[in-house]
């Protein structure tokens, strides 16, 4: 499956309307249409507390709370200072555009307990913006339909689909016509079936604790993958399959439940390496060289295959522990080194960027997209995955 498989599902719907030529609104005008929810979103995106906002604007934290709850509205001069401090255009803080509010308990964070609340809030606000970008693009480009069993506009309801993880993985493979062989491109496969995925450093170093998360509570399922896991393509693929398991199995469950996390792992293992195919291929005794060959064929880590060996009883618990000790030793001398996801076509999300490419070919510009979302062009480029990886030139 190549990126063209996604392109075939993207069709122009219509072009953006031309600019109306209306003069820019004043701060007084914008204050009249202040949206409390947008202030909360902007604050979370910036990783700021209410107290820090209050100190910057020389108001009380209570005043900021009242702004966010809609009890009162900020003065026009406060609007401008809020926007400057939070790093958004002042129009961002106004009403009048679609907004899908996502609660923290509606997203499955893989590392929930080790992720500080402020970083989770930032990740949630980022996901809301990903949906908003998707909505803006879907007005102009027809996306692949969501093909996730039981999913309907932000809800997953199962009637006759398996809920046991391994059975669900086998059933989804059958539904998607995958057979029982290796999956060449895990992330592209999800995008082909209408799941929005993203892989950007939206929170600086905070993504190391955020790790990865997903939600099925938006009009399209969203999976957020982070660059910290993408430095190992096999770990990255397993993470994507793990989040797919959450989308399919745990739509209404509280995030962070260790039992649900283990279920998602079981789903991912069976989805990537079906037992009926992988078990007969496993060596009868521990053989890291043989497992390394299988690793390349199936796109999973040697670690995962060692776990599989223990799972089917071909190795003892002590052999299992020694295998990981040996793997750690080999990695310390430069063997079994991970490969980045960026070196593997189909493992870096492309649905959103290719959707914009299609819209752009029809005359839609990134400046118009930024204006519609009330964001900076730089922010929109980041959401699309167009991050500038060049090192910054420091002033002399």
TrEMBL record:
InterPro entries: Cro/C1-type_HTH (IPR001387), IrrE_HExxH (IPR010359), Lambda_DNA-bd_dom_sf (IPR010982), Rad_response_metalloprotease (IPR052345)
Protein name (record): DNA-binding protein
Organism: Cellulomonas algicola
HTH cro/C1-type domain segment(s): 39-93
Family per similarity comment: Belongs to the short-chain fatty acyl-CoA assimilation regulator (ScfR) family.
PROSITE patterns membership: HTH_CROC1
Gene3D superfamilies: 1.10.10.2910, lambda repressor-like DNA-binding domains
UniProt cross-references to Pfam families, sorted A to Z: HTH_3, Peptidase_M78
Key words, A-Z: DNA-binding
GO molecular function: DNA binding
